[in-house]
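Exercise 7 asks you to align residues with tokens for two separate proteins.
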Amino acid sequence: MRKVNFYKTASGRSPIEEFLDTLTAKQAQKIAWVLNLVEELNIVPAQYFQKMKNTK
């Protein structure tokens, strides 16, 4: 099993948490679900790593 750790800057900021805060609840829920797959599965299907619509 893997563990997903969010990057933090030397000053303690977490860019990924800041990014997640900008998403809609549905978008954030999808990302959380995929991160859970990354932690639980040995091989995660590529279909879960497509670019999300309306994001940069």
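Second protein for Exercise 7:
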Amino acid sequence: MSDAAILALAAAFCFALALILTQFGLRTVPSWRSPLYTIGGSTAAAWLLALVFVDPSGFEWRAAAIFAVVGCIFPVAVSILAVRSNEALGPAVSGAVGNVTPVFAVLGAVLFLGERLGLVQAMGLAMVVGGVALLALRGGAGGRHWSVWVLGLPLAAALIRGAIQPAIKTALALWHEPLAAAAIGYTMSTAVILILVGRRALRSGPVDRRGLGWFLAVGMCNGTATFLLYAALGLGSIALVAPLVALFPLFAVVLSFFFLRGEQLHAIGLLGIVVSVAGVILLLVGN
């Protein structure tokens, strides 16, 4: 297995773990407030590591500009959407719908980077979409009910995750520093989230320490996952990396079984996950 594949799978696990930890944090912290701590914690960690391991002599302003532009929407928009969808749908379904990410990532790579999409990969993309459609039939976790439009939250997050990958890969070709990409991007996201909810957070008073701890842990998981994703994109094609990272719903289902006993999927939901993961496998085989 290539280094890019290993990094992508590690990123998938970290994204899934963040979904699980979010459920614990939401017990004491409102969803609107959580991105302050997840993104802020990730930014601090990214800069501490970047100051030690990034060689500033290779700085490329065009790459840094791309990292900054991406940071205005990722991870801040994804963090907000992920928390809201996690709150409404639960980590298993929220993660499974997010499995549509490779559709946007691979199509972006084909359109803008010239990567080729074969017949097997096209079949895989269709299966991923089909799996998400099955989830829309309310095959969700026991005890949860939602309107179909709520599925638009994780779908929007998936669109953003997929859309930024060609941009990041382009920037990494100019300046191959995944840590710098993460640090610059998270800095911009921190500025955005402070503008959005910083004043409201100050007015609402101190946060529960237990919830703060959970969301700082979520931030560390998401930050690690983002760095691993960027590192994988720097080494491998999007057609390889995006589908492997999209396996995080499978990790989320397994982790939910052990840590969130109430998050059990019904038959249609399980079928949707199986179909979408099978589509990801086809994408990988066809690469």
